[in-house]
Amino acid sequence: MRAFTPFTQLLALCALAASAAAADYTGPLFDAHLHYNEEAWNGQAGPHPLEDVLARMQRNGVRAIVANSRPNDGTRSLASSPQVRQAGVTVVPFVRLYRSRADYDNWYRDPAIYEMVETELARGTASGPYRGIGEFHLYDSANANGPIARKLMALADDKGLAVLAHVDDAAIDLLMANTGSRGQKTRLIWAHTGIGGAPVARVDQLFARYPLLMGELSYRPGLTCEGGTLCPEWRALLVKYPGRFMVGSDTWVNQRWQYYDDTMKGYRTWLGELPPALARRIAWDNAADLFGVKAP
Ligand SMILES: [Zn+2]
Predict the structure, then answer these.
(1) Centre of ligand 1 from the C-alpha of residue 93, in Å
(2) How far, in Å, is the centroid of ligand 1 from the Cα of 21?
(3) Counting beta carbons within 10 angstroms of the beta carbon of residue 167, is it exposed (0 to 12), middle (13 to 18) or buried (19 or more)?
(4) In angstroms, what is the span from residue 150 Cα to ligand 1's centroid?
(5) Which of 82, 161, 229, 258 sees the fewest Cβ atoms within 10 Å?
(6) d(CA 249, ligand 1 centre) in Å
(7) Is the overall model pTM greater than 0.90, yes or no?
């Protein structure tokens, strides 16, 4: 029997290598952080007209999107497009808080932004009412207590609107404190789940504290390790909170449209390492459940 041992070991090694290189996730994707900004289409054409961005979604199996844009015209053009509807891509529109880049660092104290949000909410889109507010940024978490930031969080909580927030972990607590439910009913999607790389233990603490806090995973530092595979502590967090994470493209500049295929391929790679039911939840179900989008 000894003569067979090396061969048996080789077989065992081959089996191990095959299981390590798991197949990519092949189901539908919900892009929960998409921008269709002015520079992408210039109000009508631009480098990424509607047909271009739709083709990118279609060839990557993206069947629903959270759409927001600076200004909001890009979102409305996606929401009213017959091609998008015919392609079976569901648009979940959010009101962006920025008319131009100057608003990035002033929205939280500018009453004109609150008025714009009220006007947009009243107006709605061809794909139905707006379902959320954002993405907004807070480069200094203390500005979560700015007068307009407070009013918008209270409004979102009252109306059951989701909020897409690019903020640090300290700002999550501050924003939640400014809602009527103290964050217990607040549908806050944490863009990048903290782009500054809040430690996993801190993310875990916030997820435990706020039951409807969701984590969007683009640009998240520490999520993937060598070869685009999941880092162990992040894998454990995804397993611990199967209903709380989602993926997004964050097409904040045109380069992100150019690399849209790579972004989605990257997601499919690490999603493929997870048990299929969990992969599907992060890829699709969690966002679809949040907005009541039917399975494609
Ligand atoms: Zn973004």
Answers:
(1) 14
(2) 31
(3) buried
(4) 21
(5) 82
(6) 8
(7) yes
Tokens of 183: 């964050």
Q: What is the pLDDT of residue 200?
A: 98
H-type alpha helices, 139-190: 147-159, 169-177
Q: What residues contact 135, with CB distance under 8 A and at least 6 apart? A: 33, 35, 68, 94, 96, 164, 165, 166, 191
Euclidean distance between CA atoms 126 and 79, whole angstroms: 6
- 171 within 8 A of 138, measured Cβ to Cβ: yes
| Model confidence pLDDT, tens digit, residues 137-167 | 999 999 999 999 999 999 999 999 999 999 9
Alpha-carbon distance values, 14 to 10, 19, 227, 228 (Å): 6, 9, 19, 21
- Cα 218 to ligand 1 centre (Å): 9
Low-confidence stretches of the chain (pLDDT < 70) are 1-21
Token digits of residue 16: 């191990």
**How far apart are the CA of 121 and the centre of ligand 1, in A?**
20
pLDDT of residue 176: 98
Q: How far apart are CA 30 and CA 71, in angstroms?
A: 22
Q: Structure tokens of 276? A: 């299929």
**Residue 71 preceded by cis peptide, ω within 30:** yes
Element (H, E) at 215: strand 214-216
Residue 41 C-alpha to ligand 1 middle, in angstroms?
17
How many A from CA of 33 to the centre of ligand 1? 6
Q: Which residues surround ligand 1, an ion (CB under 5 A)?
A: 135, 250, 252
State residue 121's pLDDT score: 97
